[in-house]
Amino acid sequence: MTTPTAAEQEVWDRLWAAERLPRGRAQIAALEAGLRDADALGSAELRFGARIFLTSAYQQGGEPAKAFVPFAWCLAVHDRGEADPRWTHDLHWYFKFMAGSMATFPEVPLERTRGVLDDMERRYREAGYSMNPVHQYRAVLARHVGDRETAAEQYRLWSAAPRGQMSDCVGCEPSDKVAHLSWLGRYAEAAEVAEPVLGGEFSCVEQPQHILTELLLPYVHIGRYDDAVQAHRRAYRAMRHDPAQLQAIATHLAFCALTGNHARGLDLVERHLGWLETPPTPYAEQEFAAAAALNLRLVAESGHGDAPVRRAVGSTTVAALHDELAERALAVAARFDARNGTTEQGDRIRAVLAAEPLVEHLPLSGAAAPAPVPAPVQVYPDSPEELADLGEQEARLGRSPDAVWARFDEVCPDPAGTLRARRLTAAADAEVLGDPEAASRGFAHAAALFEEAGDAVGAEAARGKEILFSALAGDRPDADGELEDSAARLAAIGEPADHARALLRLALLRFARNDFEATAEVLDRAGDPVRATPELTGAWLERRGLVLANQGDLPGAIELVTDAAARYAEIGSPERAANARLLGVQFRAGLGDRETAFAETASIDPGTNREAWARLHQLRGHLANDLGRAEDAATAFRAAVGDFTALGADVDAAVTRVELAAAALDAGRPEEAAEAIEDAEAVLERARAGHELARGRYLLAKACQELGRLVQAVELFGASAEHFAAMENEAAAGQVTESRADLLDGLDRDAEAAEAFTAAAERFQAAGLPAEELRTRRRAALSWLWAGEPAQAEEALAVADAVTGEGPQFEWESALAAYDGARLLANLDRPAEALPRATAAAEALRAMEAEGPAVAADVLCGRLWRDLGKAAEAREVLTAALARLPEEASGQRADIEALLAELDG
């Protein structure tokens, strides 16, 4: 091996730096640029090394077809005896890449693949390698064409051959064995083969996600459902951002379909559909298209064939996309079968497209809530009038009247007169939270029917509701006066309770407009009429308490809602009593007494009201968070997720999963945090919940970081920052971008770290946060230095020096900027310029009583004096620093003593 020239060494450095990049398009582009420069320089060793790097990058970066040419080039050079011997092992290893990839392209004749396997066997025998991988890849090819006899024999030989230097890793080899046994339907054996390696350590970047992916369907077939769920979660998380894993994603799609999770499967189809534009291989294209079509068929059969599906350009429907992808999968399979001379691929794809779930529904989420107290079995009357009375009473008591009105519809499917008006009022009541405009129209219709039936009180009450909810929807500028008039009419023609409800409607409108003085005035007028019923008295106390709370009188508000809860309890409404007590807990927390508030939540029982349970668990989780009790917070949020899921409130459940993820991270459970966000992501995307989606991806990035999935974490931090920036939340975008920069710095991707620190600084500048801006600019300067870009480092330092601000935090960052600037200049062999900065940093840090950092600056000053040939000055600074050191600072003490010894020597 010859010594490289300076130009050749520069290309070698770039190739090695590119080789350390995450696999994918960016790495491939960097290596291709290196190859062009290597060819231009003409160095045989450099040209060979560049192609060796590229062969691996193409294979693992999702472009395996491109690996064939550089591999053949290297093999030809090797056979001429002109190859760099450093890469002989790699060249032999890459034979497996070629043997495994060639069969996945129907344009490559089978005889060529068999020829590569024969050549691989010959070379392995000559080199003294075990035949273990040769038999492995012959078995893979036999499976592909459906040759069961050859596959069985090669599997036998493979299992009998000892492992050797060329054998796949301890995770990858069993993965292929699991695939073989699954192909034969020997699912229990497949799981047994994998068992010995699952608990071990993996050194391969492909593992354990690939062996867990292969185990998904075996686990389901043999009833190991919990293991299947955990395998899906863990493996999918590791590969969901890598387009090279399209074939493995297809297995996860098939798992979703076969376990009754085709709704989640639809989310995965939308997320990865764009990858089909440039599939890594035709085989991966076939597998993904077929598994996606299976999920889409099941979604369509559940009645949602017309549901929209998002794609990169435009959208389509579930049914239309199913037809498109099924046709695409069958077309690719036909190309393989024509090449192979068998029907194996077509038969298998047709079976996938027609498959039925193996289990009705396998829950993929661990979040569940304790069930609320079940309602007693209810025997309803047969009288429509009695049922209407009961339905209205249930609503007033805060319980769902749905079952009562369902019974009413059975008994009286075509009501007339006031009964029809009452039924329409109940239907409109059910709409008020989701669609107030529709509710308003329903109340108007009911008012007209009451009028026709001669029920003036009913008509006026329904008209009052129509006015209120059209005003809340934004369409009634004169609503306040109209509700005043309505209340006056009901006072004249109705009972006190009718008048009271009219006044409470007016109070609700004024409260919604944040006019608390006017709300209080109306409530004062309602003080006498509300005494008509305990239910109305409770409602009056509750609303009066809300007004006091908004006016700043929290103790008075607590007293009123506590009284309201007692009134509700008297009339047998635990649901409304629980709601009033929840308000009291919130008010108490507002006073700062979170400990008491948290304790009180344990005694609240909302009865059968699942929505109230959800709010209770949510509040308990937030209070536990405020108290620093991560485990209690996670337990409460987990329960709230279960409540919202049971209610069908998907968006509320997704938002709460984000809170659960934060609590799980604080509790040291990143796996649970990642699962929570993955369950929430698709729902938040559809709901366009930008803030929660951005925060969720930030938390998922943190979880991946703690789980060692660093490349994923880098990508997720970037995605989260873009989300926050799109919402013009520059402070949050800066924080997340700085987290990304920190991670890149830890990965020694210094140039990228410098760019990320700079981007964070610009976001902090836009947010008006000078201390944060200065911190990230000084760190950008150092990262440029470590990246070997001194000019850019100096430029970044100059920009940092120009940042201005005030306050203790800015002063701290200014001191650190002085210190880091001195370090930078010292590394550039400019001690005379570095010394004033280091001295200023030491003085500033000592003025802030930050003795440890001040001593570090003193030590830097000592080194700089030494470099300037001023031994006496260096000794003086270092001796003073040594005297200031606390006893426990043994590392710094040793450094200073070594420097002093050097000066004395």
Short recap of the structure:
The protein has 905 residues and is an all-alpha fold. The protein is 75% helix and 1% strand.
Low-confidence stretches: 367-375
Q: Give the termini separation.
A: 42 Å
Number of E strands: 2
- As a percent range, the share of helical residues equals over 70%
Tell me what the structure shows:
- This protein has 44 helices and two strands.
- The chain is mainly α.
- Among the domains are: 240-358, no CATH class; 820-905, Alpha Horseshoe (Serine Threonine Protein Phosphatase 5, Tetratricopeptide repeat).
- The chain has a two-stranded antiparallel sheet with strand order 1-2.
- It is flat and about 110 Å long.
- The model is unreliable at 367-375 (pLDDT under 50).
